[in-house]
Amino acid sequence: MSISVHSSAITTNLTTTVSYLSKTSTRSFPRRRIGSVNCSMEMTTETDRLVKLKNGNDSIEICRVINGMWQTSGGWGKIDQNAAVEAMIRYADADLSTFDLADIYGPAEDIYGIFINKVRRERPPEYLEKVKGLTKWVPRPGKMTRSYVRESIDVSRKRMDVASLDMLQFHWWDYANDGYLDALKHLTDLKDEGKIKTVALTNFDTERLEKILENGIPVVSNQVMFELHLPFFFSSCKFLCSCGYSLQVQHSIVDMRPQQRMAQLCELTGVKLITYGTVMGGLLSEKFLNANLAIPFAGPSLNTPSLQKYKRMVDAWGGWNLFQGLLRTMKSIATKHGVSIPTVAVRYVLDQPGVGGSMIGVRLGLAEHIQDADAIFSLVLDDEDVNSIQEVTKKGKNLLQVIGDCGDEYRG
């Protein structure tokens, strides 16, 4: 039975003033009258496995646990194409059927294309309807002609072997070049032609977002990716896409910044968070429990970009000793429920206000965590579990004060 879950302010006029506390002062951004938000979220199964995100006439149904394919881009081990496709089939067979990818994630779109074609041949039509591929287009800034945009999107459609992209998330590197407005207008035209089902943004700030809306360009979400120490991802999660229904943010038990400001804005607009970094690249796992990283080669190595990135976040939060205390607490909870530490980590974040789904990176053909992911849907954390986690996390530093709001680490 479909259960409809609506924000307390489903329909919100964009003249609302959105206030937030910056690093040093309180600021507010008056919104111009642009339109209204009519967002909602429906849990479509009793186990909350699927969620339908709606905005006006647009909607998309996704799995609440999303398979992230950044790992295909290199740095996590060599990907065998055939093994990766077979792994994707196993994930989809387990009803983990939503995949996040990009044109710049190495062979991700090509692998998805082989996968979806195999699904068409070997699975029934209703199975195909469940599968979603959310991709990104990240062009070099320059003149955005209609033909160039069309050709670029056609490349993704060809690589992914689909007539229409489920979601196209657009990123722009250089705000000094306002060609992004032309690109988005052309993308909107392609949506009207049926080549794209939903147009979204990734890494746009408030000023540019408002400019986009003022130009009458409809977007369904603004994906915020803020990788530590990668200055070219310079956007901030202070700016919720007020006309959208989902926003992708980094969010874990250690990094609770989205709950300090963003969740309130999500409640106001009805927009839902899609989180990533939830298991911190694997740091939140039994593998790193009781690991001594101070002695070379004594423990597991930080041998992927994700592990190195999130170890820096642990250092900023409170250090390795405090993190070990968190892992021990989570292991106790995991043992109590017969699950793993990563399962507890994702469930905790899914239970936070405003969260619609969480992304878990998949090393296709190299490692598999289907059982852990599936257990997330049946796990129920009780008050004792939540309180014991918070007893540890409150000892850590407030990353909002240490790093700043989401994306502030890219500002000098």
UniProtKB/TrEMBL annotation:
Span of domain NADP-dependent oxidoreductase: 65-227, 246-392
InterPro entries from the UniProt entry: NAD(P)_OxRdtase_dom_sf (IPR036812), NADP_OxRdtase_dom (IPR023210)
Gene3D superfamilies documented for this protein: NADP-dependent oxidoreductase domain
Pfam families with a match to the protein in the record: Aldo_ket_red
This protein's name: NADP-dependent oxidoreductase domain-containing protein
Organism encoding this protein: Eruca vesicaria subsp. sativa (Garden rocket)
